[in-house]
Structures are given as structure tokens and as C-alpha cells.
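Quick one, T. Sequence first:
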Amino acid sequence: MKRKHNIKHVLAAYEDSFAIEKKDSREEHIESLRANSLVGYRVKTIKSGEILEVEAYPFWEVPQGLRKKKSESSQAQKNLNDKNTKKHVTRLINANFRNYVDIWLTYTYPQGKMPVDFEQAKKDMTNLIRRMKNWLKKQEQYKEFKLKYIYVTEHTRDGNKVRAHHHMVTNFPDRDVAEKL
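C-alpha cells:
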């Protein structure tokens, strides 16, 4: 039995609807948006750490029905997903780490010690985090310390293979030890 979705969705590319052509004035552009069944705006407020974000989203009146399955996302959807991923990581960092206290590190591999694939690079980071936790357990003043970290492993950029490296934000208490580990 086929079900209808109860959620309104916009099939047109979100970003394309806001592209202002040079020949249109700002007022003409706003009026064209209204003419495309613009119903209103929703406002979302996000507090992450000391940062407060307010985002306004337009929504349109669109027909309800079954959505078609797509084999691959459109380029506009890929761009939006990428933008939302970056916002999510930024918010996690803002909510969990402190300026001028926690550390940001970039780990690179020496020549000849490059990982053979992405799985090996992930394993290397897992081992590093395990070594950090073991070092903290051995230190009397850090026995109850709760290690927090976020890391990203880069191995490709825009579909091209790049030299594998890792970016990490952590609350590890000693930068010199983190670099040695």
C-alpha cells in the first residue's frame, strides 16, 4: 500500500530560488519569490557554546504526494549537505571546547610512513587516541580526566587524492605530549 508523505518538501533547488539576476532589482526578486507560492518563513535558533545563530527558512506551498527515489543527489543537494556538515562540526566544537584553553592539532605523516588507504589512516587515529587515554591514566593529576576530541581525516579534496593528514580539536592538557604521542 502506498503512503503519502505528510511532510511538505520543496522539489526545486533551494539555492537556485534565491539567485538574483543582475537585471532584477531587489524588489522584483522578492516579488518573484512571493509569486512562487511562498507561504512564509520558519526561524530556527541554535545556541552552541557562546555562539547564538538564528536562521530563517522560507517555505512554499507544494503539492503532497509520493517522492521519487533518486539514485544520486543533485549538485545543489550535495552542496547543501556539505554546508550543513560544516555547520554541524562547527557547532560541536563551539559547544564542547574553550577558546585559548583547548588545542587544535594537525597530524601529518613523515615521508615513507604514509597509510596505504583510508582504513589504515582511521586505525592510526584510533591508536593515537588510545595512547592519549593511557598517558592520562598514568598521570596522577589526570586519572579522572575526561578526554574530549573531534577529528577529521583528509585523504581526498574535491575528488582528488591528497596526502593523508588529520585535524583534531581536543581538551588534552599538554600540547607537547600530544604532539609526541
